[in-house]
Amino acid sequence: METAKKYQFWFCTGSQDLYGDECLSHVAEHSQIIVKALNQSGVLPCEVVWKPTLITNELIRKTLNEANADEHCAGVITWMHTFSPAKSWILGLQEFRKPLLHLHTQFNREIPYDTIDMDFMNENQAAHGDREYGHIVTRMNIERKVIMGFWDDREVQERIAGWMRTAIGIMESSHIRVCRIADNMRNVAVTEGDKVEAQIKFGWEIDAYPVNEIAEYVDQVSQGDIDALVEEYYSRYQIHLEGRDPEEFRRHVAVQAGIEIGFEKFLEEKNYQAIVTHFGDLGSLKQLPGLAIQRLMEKGYGFGGEGDWKTAAMVRLMKIMTAGVKDARGTSFMEDYTYNLVPGKEGILEAHMLEVCPTIADGPISIKCQPLSMGNREDPARLVFTSKEGHGIAASLIDLGNRFRLIINDVNCKKVEKPMPKLPVATNFWVPEPNLQVGAESWIYAGGAHHTAFSYDLTSEQMCDWAAAMGIESIVIDKNTTIHQLRNELRWNSVYYR
Q1: Which of 2, 90, 175, 359 is most enclosed, with most CB atoms within 10 A?
Q2: Is residue 279 scored above 90 in pLDDT?
């Protein structure tokens, strides 16, 4: 399952010809040094490609349109080394359609106090040129990211890297296709939504199929392929029989192997990157897909339970954005289940009936086979584990009827106090920022769903940047949130986004 293409980002330096050829040669040399340093930093996820200095209306327009047409270009980084008259950028910016970063930096870190003269001032005036350029982008109401700081500082490079991953998410959003097996859970509000508007806003295609159409693919899987995958399961995961007959247990596991192979073939043939299922409509499937869906998520597919296509698309999007992250800690579909309200130990036990991605697991992963009251099918096999400790974000995309809102909560994942031997599902225990009380109240005021797309490897800043690029509202609940501030923000946003 492909999670990312080999993207590049163009580095475009603005200037003008008032200061002569020697100055322009220095501008070109300096920008090439910056590009080389960025590429050699080991911080950025993608290559930065240097472009000749932009000094005229015609060249700016031509370069930005070439960036539009290049399928490998995921965005443009702009920097004004000298003064660059902003009206020269208008036509190019009007026609530019990809993510834009304004890097507000300068070639020299320190003012050269002993030697500085007017030639140096004219040549090194990003403090001047970047403001001229920034003004026109603001006046044209063009969405962009602004990052200020010295180009060789790791913090700046890490922020550029974070923006690059957001830009990839922006580019790849239009390639997400969600396969809905049956419909969403009856009488549930948060899994509903305007699919046409979602395609207009995000580029997502959301299509529905009868469950038995995909079940036919499962039925056609050969016994040899099933046996081979079961052997892989048994070699990779711990087997917890818990009193069940070994042969009977293995038969239940084999059902999930057939579902994994059949589902994946269906998704590949029809070019879908995310899938939703619904326990109320399983057709001829022998089990509710559990282990099979967990493995598909691990391979990069998005998933949403009970027909929740918005969360399925967001999980896929966040897996794209985190592809290739060094020491990645994982991204998964998740659901709020139950609270611990003991003072000083507050938190939310996150889980789902079956489908939590094993990329977030900490320690051994087990296969268990237990009854499931929902679905009216045989006992499904599933992967069981506890999740990593550390910081993450939980994101919920909701449809408010007249607009979409993305709600992001910073959360801190912890270990539960005691084992839960009778709970046969994967779990994550987290405390929302700033604390459970304010976090939960804020989430409910904002209208957040009980399903989330969760990741250890993304930040609320990255998700807000994605939302801004999509033209939708975003709400962040973090350590600085107060109920008064949040409710005012919701009121203001209702006016702005109406």
Answers
A1: 359
A2: no
Instruction: Report the candidate in 379, 354, 374 with the shortest Cα–Cα distance to residue 245.
Output: 379
Q: What pLDDT, on a 0 to 100 scale, did the predictor assign at position 191? A: 87
Q: What percentage of the chain has pLDDT greater than the value 70?
A: 100
Q: What is the DSSP string of 164-198?
A: HHHHHHHHHHTT-EEEEES-PPTT-STT---HHHH
Q: Which residue has the tokens 């000749």?
A: 52
DSSP letter at 427 equals: B
Is it the case that residue 314 has pLDDT exceeding 90? Answer: yes
**In contact, 410 and 478? CB cutoff 8 Å:** yes
Question: Exposed, middle or buried by CB within 10 Å (0-12, 13-18, 19+), for 8?
Answer: middle
Amino acid at 351: A
What distance in Å separates the CA atoms of residue 354 and residue 249, rounded to the nearest whole number? 17
- Report whether pLDDT(3) > 80: no
Backbone angles phi, psi at 381, to 5 degrees: -80, 145
Mean pLDDT of the chain: 96
CB neighbour list of residue 38: distance below 8 Å, 6 or more residues apart: 11, 44, 48, 151, 157, 160
Other CB atoms within 10 Å distance of the CB of residue 376: 10
CA distance 276 to 274: 7
- Other C-beta atoms closer than 10 Å to the C-beta of 121 total 11
H runs (alpha helix) in 124-243: 126-139, 154-173, 195-202, 211-219, 223-236
CB atoms within 10 A of CB 241: 13
32-41, 273-282, 342-351, 387-396: range with lowest mean pLDDT: 273-282
Whether residue 280 is predicted with pLDDT greater than 90 in this model: the reply is: no
DSSP state of 306: G
pLDDT digits (tens, 9 = 90+) for 296-308: 999 999 999 999 9
